[in-house]
Design brief:
Chain A: Belongs to the GatC family. The complex is a heterotrimer of chains A (95), B (484) and C (484). Chain B is an alpha/beta fold. Chain B contains 15 helices and eleven strands. Classes of the chains: A mainly alpha (95), B alpha/beta (484), C alpha+beta (484). Strand 2 of chain A pairs antiparallel with strand 8 of chain C, so a sheet runs across the interface.
């Protein structure tokens, strides 16, 4: 299965990855190779097989509804690129 | 002391023959002196390590020492360590010092082990040769210009170079076992859920599992004793008692049923490699085990299923790296999307971007059923193969990797060829089974890994089998020619 | 052409848990920015979600309240998109296996009819943070305190045919969640938010028209207005030969119009897939039964009880059960006064009028239930007339004291002393001889009655409204008959 330039651009946008034209070109080949390899799956007979999302047949544990966290804002924001007045800054969000 | 195993060092500390501070100083010196050759460390934590060492010595004087107290070791740079840089091999996290510990780091801290530094790795654990690290490739102590395997290549090289007796690592598709095989080490990936994933930077959540790289199975058991266990902070952690893995190492192997999957001895494996693996298995027969051929009929689909599931999960797991709360942020973003696009494109390397794109594609409208769901179904078929096999045998053995250590640059331009490095290891991640690689022979003077796959939570039996093998062979005692 | 409106609502309800749905951070309102954003809420590397039992319990409670199927097994999925207020780059939601299945609620409409609205499903998910647009050197500030607050998204069937039905449905959902105590339902604070899917089709057509989604309509009143405005826009558009686009629109209450939200370069593709960090949620019958046994009385049951216990009719009972607080208020007044019908009349009459006029909700009503009960009693025992009672009620509303104090202070006590009344009547008859003659000369009974009432009015006026009207009637009748 080969992947078109358009599709690469669409997927890159969804993933918010910026690609130079030269990168797109290289990717067309490599992604097509990978998808070609992955296409082996299509030959498998999976009728009646339940998809397996987790390796173990376990179920979700439920946490009691209790507040266990304290305010660690200063610690957390010490590693942030840009903050002000306790807020994380991003370029202006347009609604 | 660098020739000693972790267990030997523990005994020396216990006997008062040395102190943790002395061991740690020696370790730090050796890293400083020799790691230029391997590039196995991204960060060396000199001050922090010495502090930990002194605290460990004090704990020993106070009678509070456990088996790992005072032992220097390295963390793969994927484990979050409080206030100590944790880069995941990426420019994205070049300056990231987490304000918290991973559960594994906390447990090892609590046990008094001394983290001397953070080991190099493929970026975000995506790679099989340690060539995707932003901090440069790692060189295998078995030969200049050879890869150590990946993604835990730094952990493996550091142990094989005898810089540290043990290192933590993670395994999503073979990232512990393949480097163990290529560096002549004992690598253990426990059952999914056995070790908490909390604070381990996620690659593919349903496949990631932490484990160890050590010189032998005895050391692996000691590490696992400390690292394993239920963690309420990880929903996928299993609330199940942790046995003493050291206690059963000496158990007799007579009657042990070993299965050799015929699919693992196919064209992908060179005759020389196959012969080494078969000859290792013959040792088990001498130890009283019975060996039979088994079949894992869907194993040829494992790589394909993996390269849908792992990138799909990764594509979402890596979305949090957006330049807002931590990590790389581009200069002067014009708007929100510009911030995302440039921060991520600058912060991530080529292989990471490739996998994010593959994963995004596999999940995108119109492809979800054909790729993602199909891969999840094949995943179940692969698991069922193992379930059937374990009705007949206790352990499955085979090669860990198709070839020994290869040259740097050999496969970097050919992703598919690189992905096939994990052709024998991926299936146990898909199934969530515990698996090991132990040194099982040599080809062209390079180590060959023997892979041991166990049933769920059967780590004790695997370690027992590995240990008994190591009592009658000396593959694991071979020293890499370029080791420090 | 005759048009039919088709409406479906998606209602997001913030659940009143103490801690967040996947972390132990507090959900309380009003904290400093990001003071309640834990490492999990901030999507720090390696952080993992663990599900809050409280959120599951509340979802199940809601399920029972709308007679829905409760899923014994539900699954969390990742909804992938990038946005400033979404730290992980995905929202954890339930796409394929929601916890609450099909259900229904009934609503009462103003024409006295009752409609049943289907609920397609309800699922658990996490709330996002908030962007603040004050000037931070041209940037926006992100507060993630709200990120991870549990939401129950309740998705109706497209069963509503008018804005009135939609508003009634929303009120019913509000009543249910507040009765259950699983949310404060405060729309002004965003604890309850509503997206309206609106389309029109020629009457008689079975296929649905193209719908638009109006986002975040945040009051009951705006829901009606926004829908009506959008319906008008769509009809006008179609009648002018245009086509409705499937799109998201925002309601601008100031201009009373909806407008299209900026469309993205590429359409969104959320790439839902099961969250590998969370396992399937399984709840057993015992858990479900315990929740059912502990359910409080719900609006429909309460309405039925008001009808049987207090002898109200459905039209009287329906508005009273709209909120738990109002219903409780009614019951206190009804019990305190022993006259449920009067209690209902006062609450839906004078009280509702003043609340509306002053935009006050029942919980902030200045007239205490016991005071209203006393006032009703004072009318019953003849202390004041029904007419003056309204005056007392206004004084109660204005906080001028207890009913008895007000009656006293304003001298509103009813005059029931017959000699006092007789004197008044005599005075009026003497002062209004013309009216008396007119009355006596009238031969048509009906007209005579009217003239009699005019005289009663004069007496009441002379007494400043305080004379007991029944006594005035009797005495006046006597006097006029004797003068006959």
């Amino acid at each position: 299965m080969s992947i078109s330039r358009d599709k690469i651009e669409q997927v890159a946008w969804l993933a918010r990855i910026q690609l130079e034209d030269s990168e797109k070109e290289a990717l067309e080949g490599k992604l097509s190779d990978i998808l070609g390899m992955v296409d082996q799956l299509q030959a498998a007979d999976t009728d009646g097989i339940t998809p397996m999302a987790h390796p173990l047949d376990a179920t979700q544990r439920l946490r009691p509804d209790e507040v266990t966290e304290t305010n660690k804002r200063e610690r957390f924001q010490a590693v942030a690129p840009e903050t002000q007045d306790g807020l994380y800054l991003v370029p202006r969000v347009v609604e | 002391m660098h020739t000693s195993t972790l267990s030997e060092l523990a005994r020396a500390l216990e006997a008062g023959e040395t102190t943790s501070e002395a061991l740690t100083r020696e370790t730090l010196e050796r890293i400083r002196a020799h790691d230029g050759r391997y590039n196995s460390f991204i960060t060396v934590a000199e001050e922090r390590a010495l502090e930990q060492a002194r605290a460990a010595d004090k704990a020993r004087t106070d009678g509070r020492a456990g088996p790992l107290t005072g032992i220097p070791f390295a963390h793969k740079d994927i484990f979050c360590t409080e206030d100590l840089l944790t880069t995941c091999g990426s420019r994205m996290l070049e300056n990231f010092a987490p304000p918290y510990n991973s559960t594994v780091a906390q447990k090892l801290d609590d046990a008094g082990a001394v983290c001397v530094g953070k080991a190099n790795m493929d970026e975000f654990a995506m790679g099989s040769s340690n060539e995707t690290s932003y901090f440069g490739p790692v060189t295998n102590p078995w030969g200049d210009g050879l890869v150590p395997g990946g993604s835990s290549g730094g952990s493996a090289a550091a142990v094989a170079a005898r810089l540290v007796p043990a290192a933590t690592a993670t395994d999503t598709g073979g990232s512990i076992r393949q480097p163990a095989a290529l560096c002549g080490l004992t690598g253990l990936k426990p059952t999914y859920g056995r070790i908490s994933r909390y604070g381990i930077i996620a690659f593919a959540s349903s496949l990631d599992q932490a484990g160890t790289l050590t010189r032998d199975a005895r050391d692996a058991a000691l590490m696992l004793n400390t690292m394993a266990g239920f963690d309420p902070k990880d929903s996928t952690s299993l609330d199940r008692e942790v046995p003493d893995y050291s206690a059963s190492l000496e158990n007799d192997l007579s009657g042990l049923r070993i299965g050799l999957p015929k699919e693992y001895f196919s064209d992908e494996l060179s005759p020389a490699m196959a012969e080494q693996v078969r000859s290792a298995v013959r040792e088990y027969e001498k130890l009283g085990a019975t060996v039979k051929e088994i079949t894992l009929p869907h194993s040829h689909l494992a790589v394909a299923a993996y390269y849908v599931i792992a990138p799909a999960e990764a594509s979402a797991n890596l979305s949090r790296f957006d330049g807002v709360r931590y990590g790389h942020r581009c200069d002067n973003p014009q708007d929100l999307n510009d911030l995302y696009l440039r921060s991520r494109s600058e912060g991530f390397g080529e292989e990471v971007k490739r996998r994010i794109l593959v994963g995004t594609y596999a999940l995108s409208a119109g492809f979800f059923d054909a790729y993602y769901l199909k891969a999840q179904k094949v995943r179940r078929l692969i698991q069922q193969d193992f379930t059937n096999a374990f009705n007949e045998v206790d352990l499955i053995m085979g090669p860990t990797s198709p070839s020994p250590a290869f040259a740097q640059g050999d496969k970097t331009d050919d992703p598919i060829n690189m992905y096939l490095e994990d052709v024998f290891t991926i299936a146990s991640n898909l199934a969530g089974l515990p698996a090991m690689s132990i040194p099982g022979g040599m080809v062209n003077n390079l180590p060959v890994g023997l892979q041991i796959i166990g049933n769920y939570f059967d780590e004790a039996r695997m370690l027992n089998a590995a240990h008994r093998f190591q009592q009658v062979t000396d593959w694991h005692r071979q020293v890499a020619p370029n080791s420090a | 052409m005759q048009w039919e409106t088709v409406i479906g609502l998606e209602v997001h309800v913030q659940l009143a848990t103490q801690s967040k749905i996947f972390s132990g951070a507090s959900t309380a309102f009003g904290a400093e920015p990001n003071a309640q954003a834990s490492a999990v809420d901030l999507a720090m590397p390696g952080m993992l979600p663990v599900l809050n039992e409280g959120a599951v319990r509340m979802a199940v409670q809601f399920g029972f309240a709308v007679n829905a199927d409760i899923a014994h097994r539900s699954v969390f999925d990742r909804k992938n998109y990038f946005y400033a207020d979404l730290p992980k780059g995905y929202q954890i939601s339930q796409m394929y296996h929601p916890i609450v299945g099909k259900g229904e609620v009934s609503v009462n409409l103003s024409d006295g009819s009752e409609r049943t609205i289907g609920i397609e499903h309800a699922h658990l998910e996490e709330d996002a943070g908030k962007s603040l647009h004050e000037d931070f050197q041209g940037q926006s500030g992100i507060d993630l305190n709200r990120a991870g607050t549990p939401l129950l998204e309740i998705v109706s069937e497209p069963d509503m045919r008018s804005a009135e039905e939609a508003a009634a449905y929303l009120r019913k959902i509000h009543a249910i969640v507040t009765y259950l105590g699983i949310s404060d339902g405060d729309m002004s604070q965003g604890s309850m938010r509503c997206d309206c899917n609106v389309s029109v089709r020629p009457k008689g057509q079975t296929e649905f028209g193209t719908r638009s989604e109006i986002k975040n309509v945040n009051s009951f009143r705006f829901v009606e207005k926004a829908i009506n405005t959008e319906v008008e826009r769509q009809i006008e558009l179609i009648e002018d030969g245009g086509e409705v686009q499937q799109e998201t629109r925002l309601y601008d209450a100031d201009r009373d119009e909806t407008r299209s939200m900026r469309t993205k370069e590429f359409a969104n593709d959320y790439r839902y897939f099961p969250d590998p960090d969370l396992l399937p949620v399984e709840i057993d019958d015992e858990y479900i039964d315990r929740i059912r046994d502990d359910l409080p009385e719900l609006p429909d049951t309460k309405q039925a009880r008001f009808i049987t216990e207090y002898g109200l009719n459905a039209d009287e009972a329906a508005p009273l059960v709209q909120s738990q607080t109002l219903a409780d208020y009614f019951e206190q007044v009804a019990r305190g006064s022993g006259d449920a019908r009067q209690a209902a009349n006062w609450i839906m009459g004078e009280l509702a009028r003043l609340m509306n006029q002053n935009e006050v909700e029942i919980q902030d009503c200045p007239v205490g239930a016991s005071d209203l009960a006393t006032l009703i009693l004072r009318v019953q025992d003849g202390t004041i007339s029904g007419k003056l009672a309204k005056q007392v009620f206004e004084a109660l509303w204005n906080g001028e004291g207890s009913p008895d104090e007000i009656i006293d202070k304003q001298g509103l006590k009813q005059v029931s002393d017959s000699s006092e009344i007789e004197a008044l009547v005599d005075q009026v008859l003497a002062d209004n001889q013309a009216m008396v003659d007119d009355y006596l000369g009238e031969e048509v009974a009906k007209k005579q009655k009217k003239k009699f009432n005019a005289l009663v009015g004069q007496v009441m006026k002379a007494s400043q409204g305080k004379a007991n009207p029944a006594q005035v009637n009797d005495i006046l009748q006597q006097k006029l008959t004797s003068s006959d």
